[in-house]
Amino acid sequence: MITSVSNVFKNLQLENEELKVVESIFSEVTYKKGDTILQTNEKVYYQYYVVKGCLRTFFLDTKGKEHTIQFAINDWWISDYIGYFSESESVLSIECITNATVLKVAKKDLDNTYEKVPKIEHFFRKKLERSTVRFQKRILNNLVLSAKERYHLFLQTYPNIEQQIKNYHLASYLGITTESLSRIRKEAL
Amino acid sequence: MITSVSNVFKNLQLENEELKVVESIFSEVTYKKGDTILQTNEKVYYQYYVVKGCLRTFFLDTKGKEHTIQFAINDWWISDYIGYFSESESVLSIECITNATVLKVAKKDLDNTYEKVPKIEHFFRKKLERSTVRFQKRILNNLVLSAKERYHLFLQTYPNIEQQIKNYHLASYLGITTESLSRIRKEAL
Q1: Interface check B188 vs A, CB under 8 A
Q2: What is the ipTM of this complex?
């Protein structure tokens, strides 16, 4: 467990005392393939760092259609960030696509840590900058790229996870039907 | 000018010395209605705090169609955040919809300030959390709300700016045609 948390912040060069503070707010949890970590309309307390495995967040619309918002693999973070940052109830679900090991941390514990360990606030500010870039790119790519181009970009962004996820996961991430996805795959062969 | 910068950080209770450091990295700039602050394919150095006026970022797709990504009114921030955070070239344009006064700050100057004035890093971490919530809500709202519902949400989010912006600005923000927008407005009367 201790190794895992220090690994999350490996570039920060935390002092031993700082590392102890940070380790005390993370807990390691193991899930089985298919487990739901968060359901909709639950209070969102945690964000999750993926040690191992593959997870996704998805939104279920009023017609029962799933929209995959994000995948997370090793060394990525995942949560319902609307609920997490605004301390409100979830609109997304978080599901384990494979067996998974995660480190979870509660917002209130992180908020208390920023003052004690400014390097941690620095880390999360930088992480938010990167995720802003990613989310804005995703919005623009949906406007400008064809489904085929979005598929190839997905393969670059999440290497080696295509085998682990179901067709409808990926189709619902790309915003296309599973039939269109099959067609695109055939063309790519 | 001094009043403006302290107003941006009014909740931070900066010491005089801290305020001086922060003031030194901001500059006030005045623009005319219709001015373009940033064009595509320019290196993005700045983000902008709106003191007065209304600005927008938009993306011009390969078919020549504009997509309005964000509006910013008094007390909001605006930039091409992909370019700004990843220190790359702009994909968006920033345009002044009205005469505008902004405070601009360069990424490199802010990055140098975080260590000197940790309260500023705290401020921008919180700002990024709020903008993450806003952007994720926008993605979900586009998936789940009707054009009519998105229009009414826009009126709540940006009160009093409907009169200042052109029909095609708003239509390109809502992802609908100007004809659909006219129809929705008529129904709302």
Answers
A1: no
A2: 0.91
